[in-house]
Structure formats: structure tokens, C-alpha cells
Design a protein that fits this description.
Length: about 110
């Protein structure tokens, strides 16, 4: 009986703590070989997730040297990337397959 109560208490504490553990997600879409939003915002000094959804009929490659990420996004697909805590600042990103039209900048504050 003691084990059941302990397990229930642990489960309840995990449920209550879940919102505090959840990371913020930065949502970005690609359509017409352009990012939307082109200047998304993220919290400083906290880990977060970038989710990129490709609405185009061709593949894209979300890349950022300053964020240290590079991920191909198939047509109609989406990818998620875990980002380490960042200092406040501006972090450029682009579509490596369409560099002439697809650029953006993550604003961390």
C-alpha cells in the first residue's frame, strides 16, 4: 500500500511539474521560398525548440551557422530542432537550397 501511495504522489508531482519543464517552441513556415515569420523571437538563456514546416513543393534546408543547426525539410513535412540556451542577440538562418530568397533572423531576448 505504501508503494502505491508513493507511486501516485510521484506521478502527481510529475504532472504538476510538466508545464514548468516544457520548452517554448518557435514555429517557422516556408512558403514561396520565404520564411514566415522572417524574424521570430525566442527567450534568452533557456533551451527551446525550433519547428520548421515546409509548405513548398520542393525540399528546403534550414541552416544556421550561429545556431549550429542544419536540417533538410522535405516538401509538406516539418522538422524540430532542440536549441541550447542562447545569449540575447540576433542569429541568422537561411534555406541552403534557396539562399537568394530565403533568409531570416532569430531574435533572442
Amino acid at each position: 500500500m505504501k508503494t502505491v501511495r508513493l507511486s501516485a504522489a510521484l506521478a502527481l508531482s510529475l504532472l504538476l511539474a510538466a508545464p514548468a519543464l516544457a520548452q517554448q517552441a518557435v514555429q517557422i513556415t516556408i512558403k514561396g521560398h520565404k520564411f514566415s515569420p522572417a524574424q521570430p523571437h525566442a527567450p534568452a538563456n533557456q533551451a527551446f525548440t525550433i519547428v520548421v514546416k515546409n509548405l513548398d513543393s520542393t525540399a528546403a534546408e534550414f541552416e544556421s551557422k550561429s545556431l549550429r543547426v542544419e536540417k533538410v525539410v522535405a516538401p509538406g513535412a516539418q522538422v524540430s530542432m532542440q536549441i541550447r540556451p542562447l545569449n540575447p542577440g540576433h542569429y541568422a538562418f537561411f534555406d541552403d537550397f534557396h539562399q537568394d530568397t530565403t533568409e531570416g533572423e532569430l531574435i533572442v531576448e
